[in-house]
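Q&A log
Question type: sequence-to-structure
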Amino acid sequence: MWVRKINGYRGKRVIMKRRSKRYREILKLVKKDKKIDAKEILELVKKNSTCKFDESIDVSLKINQKQSKGGDFNLRTVVNLPNGSGKKVKIAVLCEPDKTEEAKKAGADIVGSEDLLESISKGKFNFTKLVCTPSMMSKIGKHGKVLGPKGLMPNPKLGTVSTDLSKAVKDLKTGLVEIRNDKDGNLSSTIGRKSYSVEKLLDNYKYFIESVKKEKPDTIKGEFIKNIFITSTMGISYKAGSK
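Response status: OK
Response body:
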C-alpha cells in the first residue's frame, strides 16, 4: 500500500491498494457473469489456491426465503459430507461422570460435568463445538444467552444433544457441518480443502447442494437456490449453476 498527496493540499491523501503478483495472475482466470460446470470450477479454484497453507474450498448460496404464508423461511440444519470437510474442530462434551470415558474414547478434546459447567459460567470457551447429553441440558440452559450467539448452544436437530456420544463426536470430527442462512438468505459452508482431489470435492459439492434442496418447504414456489458461488480462502469466486 502507498500514499500520494494530490492538489498540493497538505494532509489530503489518496490511498491506493497494490495488488500482489499472485492475485493479478488469478484475475486472469476470471470468467465474469458466466456459469460454468462445477467440476471445471473446482479445477480452477484448486489451481488458484497457491498459498502455502491448505486453503478451504467454500460454497456460498443465496436461497429463496419468500413463503406463500408464514413469513420468511429460515434454514438451519447439518450436512454430513461424504468425504469430510477437512476442518479441525475442538469438541467439548458435557455429560454425566459415568459417560466421560465414552466421550474421551470417541475423541472429544474436553470432557466434563460440573467442572465444565463452571468453566462455561466463567466465560471460558476453549472449544468450537459443545456436545451435551439430554439430562445435562437443564443445567446448560441458563447459559443459552451466552452460548447461543457464539453458535455453541447444543441442539438436538444439529446432532449436538445425544445419548450416543461416540456417534455425535465422530460425526463432528469427520464431516458434519452446520449450515444456516442470514436475514438476506445467504449461507455458506466449507466442502473440503485444496489438498482434496477434484473428485472428492465434487462429491461433497453435489451432496451439499442436494441436501440444501431437500430442505425446501412446500410453501416456497419456484427455484429454491437463487445462485451458487465456489471459492477458496484466498482465491476468487466462480458462479455455478444450481442443477
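Response note: Helices lie at 21-27, 38-48, 100-106, 114-121, 137-140, 144-147, 165-174, 198-213.
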